[in-house]
Amino acid sequence: MRGVDKNDVPSVTVPRLALYLRKLRELRARGVERVSSKDLAEMIDLNAAQIRKDFSYFGEFGTRGVGYEVPVLVDEITRCLGLDHTWNVVIVGAGLLGTALARYRGFTEQGFRLVGMFDSSASVIGARFGTGEDSRVRSVHELDEFCRRERVDIAMITVPAGEAENTVRRLGAAGVKAILNFAPLKVHAPEGVLVRQVDLSSELMSLSFYLDKEQE
Amino acid sequence: MRGVDKNDVPSVTVPRLALYLRKLRELRARGVERVSSKDLAEMIDLNAAQIRKDFSYFGEFGTRGVGYEVPVLVDEITRCLGLDHTWNVVIVGAGLLGTALARYRGFTEQGFRLVGMFDSSASVIGARFGTGEDSRVRSVHELDEFCRRERVDIAMITVPAGEAENTVRRLGAAGVKAILNFAPLKVHAPEGVLVRQVDLSSELMSLSFYLDKEQE
Fold it and tell me: Is the Cβ of B177 closer than 8 Å to some Cβ of chain A?
């Protein structure tokens, strides 16, 4: 069994890996040792051939009638996704969405450690966002120094649109390498920083497009 | 100028249309009449050739040195995305994320009308989620009848993972045609219902994948 070369894994496969991992962990927790591509396909509503192709990146080919070893796949995918170590995460913007993200169960489960939360509003600074002693919203003035000192890897930003560009630039300069942007506009990614856009109204627009097509 | 045939527009183009629309509306609001694909490309960090190709679905070819007419494009894209009429939207799950979505500025701007919000928890039912007289969280028991009566088009669900499947089934049976699922698992789409998954932890996993690749 060989380790996977990440450069072999196409970017469109990555979201599926996340999906497989969640289901496979669930199976492992229930003590399931093996799973066929067919059964897995049914569980997650995907095509079995697609699953076999995706797993072949791990050099895992399954055995007809026996299937894939669940714990092996869990380990391989975990490693491939870089989830075998902890990432330090900050949230910039402690409004409703930021607070919802801070409590989102899915994140901490996956080894994402929320180390800090920042806001510019005096009415929010100092508010508790978690159970830790240190889990209080800080002023954005502290953002740059904090990110450098705590070696922050990832930032989620939920600031108003007008502040997004500047926030991303500061985060980049402070060594943050990946940003999940929830602000409703596309921002320029500084050199060496990966910015992913979660555009909620664009998701709704996609639904609208299909609904409208249906009704034509 | 011809109307666009939506079947010509590939699904990968739709999120870009949403992006163009936002920027073009901004330009229109500033009184800008024309824009070149090159300038637009710089504004939204996309390739100019890609933009020209996307706009060709509208039969819009722009004029070299003069560019595209901004108000025309705004109208065409608005119509293509089905945003020239209002969609009735409900949110199921009035936790932090649901409440954040209810206040998300981007939605109402685009003609998505939040008509109801539902939760199963007595501590939340009756709470205000908007400014309207009727803007109070209802019990999920009312969900099915409400969706039929109010002709709800789109639902956003932020319920716990264990309730997602059942919620989607009920919404489908009550005539809801499109669902944006924020629950952290993939659900089966009932016949004739479009379900889109917004998987926040999968977004973070993608970041993790790329960060890890960088550091190898």
Answer: yes
Structure tokens at A162: 């007008």
Are residues A197 and A92 both part of a single domain?
yes
Q: Are B34 and B65 in contact (CB under 8 A)?
A: no
Both tokens of residue B99?
Answer: 């409440």
Whole domain around residue A118: which residue ranges?
87-202
**Which CATH number does the domain housing residue B50 bear?**
1.10.10.10
Is the CB of residue B188 less than 8 Å away from at least one CB of chain A?
yes
CA–CA separation, B28 and B75 (whole Å) = 11
- Pairing mode, if any, of strands B34-35 and A194-197? unpaired
Clarify whether residues A97 and A37 are in a common domain.
Answer: no
DSSP tally for chain A: helices H, then strands E: 9, 8
The pLDDT confidence band at residue A61, using thresholds 50, 70 and 90, is low
The two structure tokens encoding residue B47: 């390739």
Judged by CB atoms closer than 8 Å, whether chains meet at A207 and B180 is answered as yes
Substitution target in A78, A202, A213 with the highest count of B β-carbons within 10 Å is A202
Under DSSP, the state recorded for B197 is E
Shortest CA distance from B101: residue in chain A: A97
Residues A23, A120 within the same domain: no
Give how far B89 is from chain A: nearest CA, Å.
Answer: 10
Contact A155/A187 with Cβ under 8 angstroms? no
Sheet holding B87-92, edge to edge: B138-139, B112-119, B87-92, B154-157, B178-181, B194-197
Chain A nearest-CA distance from B67, in A, is 22
What is the ipTM, given to two decimal places? 0.81
CATH of the domain at B192: 3.40.50.720
pLDDT in tens, B42-75: 888 788 888 998 988 877 667 777 889 999 999 9
First to last CA, chain B: 52
Note the pTM of the prediction, 2 decimals.
0.79
- Judged by CB atoms closer than 8 Å, whether chains meet at A100 and B97 is answered as yes
Neighbours of B42 (CB within 10 A): 12
Which residue(s) pair with A89 in the sheet? A114, A154
Phi, psi of A155 (to 5 degrees): -125, 140
